[in-house]
Design a protein that fits this description.
It contains twelve helices and ten strands. It has 339 residues and is an alpha/beta fold. It has a single domain, classed as TIM Barrel (Alpha-Beta Barrel), CATH 3.20.20. An eight-stranded parallel β-barrel has the order 1-2-3-6-7-8-9-10, surrounded by seven helices. Strand 6, helix 7 and strand 7 form a beta-alpha-beta unit. It is globular. Bound molecules: 2-O-methyl-1,6-di-O-phosphono-D-mannitol. The site of 2-O-methyl-1,6-di-O-phosphono-D-mannitol has 14 residues, from helix 11.
Length: 339
């Protein structure tokens, strides 16, 4: 794939009114989600849940791409079509999580490094053959006393940049996700400082590895107060701090920033995205790549029962529509009422 094809794919993932569904929960995470609704996790129940989401009528109006997990990219819908083919037939780009998870960083208690570079070139070629057009790798950065360490930031930035270069070589658009966690009592300023440092090092590493910025997307956290902070910043403050941080460190050549929700409520994630887009224009498209903030109410409504499938799909389509509007800065609170 040429560099202009990569750039075109990246731009189509952040097309107006659209964003990405992160449905790449590893089996452990998906099992926790299913436990939460009293459903035993098995290959069959995970397939039924993902199939419910991917067959949602009208999803393609607001979802440009779906990030899949290794198991999911190999599964089929009830009509026998492979999930990537089903998505592609609806104009939704299939993507794939390619990291193998965050592992304890030696000598740095409380910190992790995301692994998965060994054999990645071969796995990317296989995923491309299975229909993937983009990929995702998530690094996890914790805030705490003395954290994050320079070793954690540098190691994760380097791994993300090497992953991104391999993706572009394989013709896949890399989504680069360095997530600064919301966990902790830190305030907005501390999150801004750490996010600025994280992203600054990230773009240095991407440059060092020769990653073409036009053919990638950034998936960051918003600059937000810690979940246990005594007072939490409001929507306008979060939007202003996030934009200030990104203007300082994210080059304008990057076509899009697709936020993670990171534990924000569905409504918070939508409100924050909308507020930032209302403060535009910006050098990059500002969109979403939400997991929990798109799925949580649909998962609860589905509850593993076939008779709830349509209701859950309507709820998922509604969250996608609200975030599609927020992605353009035209969400209103009244849109939250489902018709
Ligand atoms: C959907 O969750 C993703 C996979 O997580 P695990 O590897 O831990 O199972 C996760 O990477 C996700 O893509 C991002 O964190 C965004 O999801 P949220 O829920 O934060 O919007």
């Amino acid at each position: 794939m040429s560099s202009s094809d990569l750039a075109a794919t990246a731009r189509s993932l952040v097309a107006p009114g659209k964003g990405i569904l992160a449905a790449d929960e590893s089996t452990g995470t998906m099992t926790k989600r299913l436990d939460g609704i009293g459903v035993a996790s098995s290959e069959a129940t995970r397939r039924a849940y993902r199939g419910m989401l991917f067959e949602t009528p009208g999803m393609e109006q607001h979802i440009s791409g779906v990030i899949l997990y290794d198991e999911t990219i190999r599964q089929q819908a009830d009509d026998g079509r492979a999930f990537p083919d089903l998505l592609a037939s609806r104009g939704v780009l299939p993507g794939i999580k390619v990291d193998s998870g965050a592992k304890a960083l030696a000598g740095h208690p409380g910190e992790t490094v995301t692994e998965g570079l060994d054999g990645l070139r071969e796995r990317l070629a296989e995923y491309r053959g299975l229909g993937a057009r983009f990929a995702k790798w998530r690094a996890v950065i914790a805030i705490g006393p003395g954290l994050p360490s320079p070793a954690c930031l540098e190691t994760n930035a380097h791994a993300l940049a090497r992953y991104a270069a391999l993706c572009q070589e394989a013709g896949l658009v890399p989504i680069v996700e360095p997530e600064v966690l919301m966990d902790g009592a830190h305030d907005l300023d501390r999150c801004e400082t750490v996010t600025t440092e994280t992203l600054g090092l990230q773009f240095e590493a991407l440059r060092a590895q020769g990653v073409q910025l036009e053919g990638m997307l950034l998936k960051p956290n918003m600059v937000i107060s810690g979940t246990q902070a005594p007072t939490r910043a409001g929507v306008a403050e979060v939007a202003a701090a996030t934009l200030r941080c990104f203007r300082r460190v994210v080059p304008a050549a990057v076509p899009g920033i697709v936020f993670l929700s990171g534990g924000q409520s569905d409504l918070e994630a939508t409100e924050h995205l909308d507020a930032m887009n209302r403060m535009g224009p910006h050098p990059w498209q500002l969109s979403f790549s939400y997991g929990r903030a798109l799925q949580a109410p649909a998962l609860a409504a589905w509850a593993g029962k076939a008779e709830n499938r349509e209701t859950a799909q309507r709820i998922f389509a509604h969250r996608a529509a609200c975030n599609g509007a927020a992605r353009d800065g035209r969400w209103t609170r009244s849109m939250e009422q489902m018709g």
